[in-house]
Amino acid sequence: MSRAVKGKSAGVKAGSGTVKRGRVKSPKGQAGMVPAPVTIEDKIVLEIRKFIAASIFFNTQTAEKVGIGLTDMQMLHMLQLYGPSTPSKLTGLSSGGVTVALDRLEKAEYVRREANPGDRRSLLVVLVPARLQRMAGLYDEVERETRRQLGTLPQRDLEAVVRFFETMGKVRAERKEPTKAKG
Question: Would you say residue 38 has pLDDT above 60?
Fold first, then answer.
């Protein structure tokens, strides 16, 4: 499907390739590169992907500093954001994967399992706040810079950002597993 930018002609230079009908002619050896953005939606999706990739690497480095794995760190983030949870609702990962990660976190004393007062057949995973002190400060600089950048935006833009992330959060919460890979 062809996408055009209003007022722009096809063949606009973009990076190291040429945009034609929403695709980039990649230089030899760069097959599989993401096409250059054509629409504002393309640019937003591209910037989100860049942000997520950089965030994953930052979280990986942070997890390594405290001696845990990336999945374990993400589980701690989920518990910090949403509070105590049953293992099955925590991540959307397989029960075996969640159990192994929780075993590691429990052994490292970041979490504990408690009886679920709402359902005696299940457990709640609860953070151990004293142990989280080990991670104190690791995200302070990133949070400060994020707040500084947000402070440069007008209120209406901030409200649009909040609406966007709330909407995307709901979409992601409804879709637990990635679709199948092509091929």
Answer: yes
- Tell me, letter by letter, the H, E, C secondary structure of the chain: CCCCCCCCCCCCEECCEEEECCEECCCCCCCCCCCCCCCHHHHHHHHHHHHHHHHHHHHHHHHHHHCCCHHHHHHHHHHHHHCCECHHHHCCCCHHHHHHHHHHHHHCCCEEEEECCCCCCCEEEEECHHHHHHHCCCCHHHHHHHHHHHCCCCHHHHHHHHHHHHHHHHHHHHCCCCCCCCC
pTM of full prediction above 0.85: no
CB 90 within 8 A of CB 79: yes
How far is Cα 54 from Cα 49, in angstroms, rounded to an integer?
9
